[in-house]
Amino acid sequence: MQPHPGKKRVLIADTTQETRRNTRVMLSSVKGVEVVAIALDGTQAVEMARLHKPDIVLLDINMSKVNGLAAYRQILKENPRTVCILVSAERHPETLEAAGELGIQNFLIKPFTEHELDDAMRDAIRRLDNMPVAQENREARLRRLADEYVRVQRTDEEAVKVLEDAVQLPNPELVWQQTLAMIYVVRQRWEKLKAIAERLEKRN
Prior knowledge:
There is one protein chain. By secondary structure, the chain is α/β, with parallel strands linked by helices. The chain has helices at 17-27, 42-52, 68-78, 93-101, 114-130, 133-151, 157-166, 174-187, 190-203, and strands at 8-13, 33-39, 56-60, 83-88, 106-109. It has nine helices and five strands. The chain has a five-stranded parallel β-sheet with strand order 2-1-3-4-5, with helices on both faces. Helix 6 packs across helix 7, helix 7 packs across helix 8 (174-187) and helix 8 (174-187) runs antiparallel to helix 9 (190-203). It is elongated, with a radius of gyration of 19 Å. Mean pLDDT is 88; it is low at 1-5.
């Protein structure tokens, strides 16, 4: 599937063949988008996102191997700009809360209509168009620096500042939080340690 210049690239990932087929057919009538990849499970979705670099991903929450939320979490690591539309057969408060923590704002309940899909896509496109490039670059830079500082075990003030900013990003790496917690213990910054501990406990 070759993307058309100027159109938003879309990846569909769903375990159900009928949903994959119907979604692709409905998207053919949505202006400004083009399907560049279709995945059958979460692992394949992550691999295809790495290869095709979609702007928008439609992910089934209950995919095998890797569920939709976990797949999106991995996709965000490589492209923080990717927007997700989460698809599910049911609307659970826990799922909505977890989706919100990843910045997901669009949620479709199966079976969804062409109008509902169009609305979700329009909103996703608006979010992409309004996303500041500077913000995207800042997030990518923070993630790169945080990974590097953890790898070389830097604990100076600059490294602490980078890690503190990085853990505020959507989907922060667990190792960033753990490293920051250890630094706080050594420096006896108990209030900050408490905040990190609460984040880690919530994550678990």
